[in-house]
Amino acid sequence: MSRSAATIVGGSLIGVSKRTIVEFSFMLAVPTMLAASGLELVKGHSALAGHYTPLAVGFVVSFVTAIIAIKSFLGYIKKHDFAAFGWYRIVLAVVYFLVFLR
User: Does a structural domain hold residue 20?
Assistant: First the structure.
């Protein structure tokens, strides 16, 4: 189970609204992503020497894409429940089992 699934299921069980759960889940990801990115930057700083422009472009594109994805997901959950995501994970697990673990 992922971090986001755990927060969404936990929030649903205690009666928190869908929008609040999803916003909390995304906000919970921010320190985790910052820490992971910071560690990778520290570990790979010598490989980055002089290559700051591609890094900056990648950061900006990733940030904009993430904002679009979050806004889209929040718009989706206003009208739908989480059932599609539950079924998606079940189907994905079965496909993974059949392809890689059989």
Answer: yes
Amino acid at 84: A
Residue 34 belongs to a domain: yes
Residue 99 is given by DSSP the state I
Residues 102, 83: Cα–Cα separation, whole Å? 27
- Closest by CA to 18, choosing from 91, 67, 82, is 82
Query: pLDDT by residue (tens digit) across 9-35?
Result: 888 899 998 889 888 888 888 898 889
- Per-residue pLDDT of 42-94, as tens digits, reads 888 887 788 889 888 998 999 899 889 888 988 888 888 888 878 888 899 89
Rg (CA), the chain: 18
In sequence order, the 6+-apart residues with CB closer than 8 A to the CB of 46 are none
- Work out how many domains the chain is built from and give that number: 1
DSSP letters spanning 40-66: HHHHTHHHHTT-HHHHHHHHHHHHHHH
Q: Residue 22 is which amino acid?
A: V
- Its domain, for residue 55, covers 3-39+51-101
